[in-house]
Amino acid sequence: MKTKHWITIVAVLFAFILCAGSMFIVKEGEYKVVLRFGEAMRTVKEPGLNFKIPFIESTTMLPKYQMTFESNPGQIMTKDKKPILVDNYTIWRISDPEKFFRNLNTVSGGVQRIDEAVYNSVRRKLSEVDYDVIISENSARGNINDEITEDVSLALQRGDYGIDIVDVRIKRTDLPESNKQSVYNRMISDRQSIAARYLSEGDEESRKITSKADRTATELLAQAEADAKKIIAEGEQEAAQIYNNAYGKDPAFYKLYRTLESYVITLKNEPVIMMPIESPYAQILIGE
């Protein structure tokens, strides 16, 4: 009876072990690769409870989410022979877990392969660009990042690693300490030369504008003076004609009018005037 009891207990334990060994759980944000004697057989991508053959099959977990890898700063030579320190990061994910496991086995192995591909692409691309362009042109930097991303993605696709490269970005480009001051001094000298050229061009343009404005003003004043003289001459001629016409119609009245005008001018400041009383000029003043 006791022997039968123990056999039952052992059978239950064995069944429990078999059942437990055949089940595995896939969590959100992960792949489970089912291995048979160490070889990848299939991948379970959806979360939930799944089964495998106990003692024969095992599982390994690979991340399903996007990962970020930051490369260590490396020294690269630009097109104009300036050594620079480049710091960049890569966003990537595992697209085919079985290929990834067969070729790289672990995430650290994938990171190592990505680091090699990124370094080679960054070194090749930046060696085609001058340092001034890298640090001063945002649009150029953006184009370089896009080209590096595409280049690294193609390199890893050729290797059939089961990796998708989402983005590669250069975070920082800096000069080694030994080169910084000489490059900064040269950049300052270049900027001062550019500023001096701009100032010289501005002064020359200012002189041209001022000269043109002075010439235009002189021409306008000369034309205005000529027009004024012409108008005055025409006015004087017309006035003389009016006077002549008036004198011709009534010479006596015209003579009296001119005499009265002379009184206005002569007596303007109340002067003392001495003249014979019988003078026609004086007789008009005294009312005779």
UniProtKB/TrEMBL annotation:
It is found in: Membrane. One of its GO terms (cellular component) is membrane. Keywords: Hydrolase, Membrane, Protease, Transmembrane, Transmembrane helix. InterPro entries: Band_7, Band_7/SPFH_dom_sf, HflC. The chain crosses the membrane at residues 6-26. Pfam families: Band_7. One of its GO terms (biological process) is proteolysis. GO terms for molecular function: peptidase activity. Residues 21-187 form the Band domain. PANTHER family: MODULATOR OF FTSH PROTEASE HFLC (PTHR42911). Belongs to the band 7/mec-2 family. HflC subfamily. HflC and HflK could regulate a protease. This is Protein HflC.
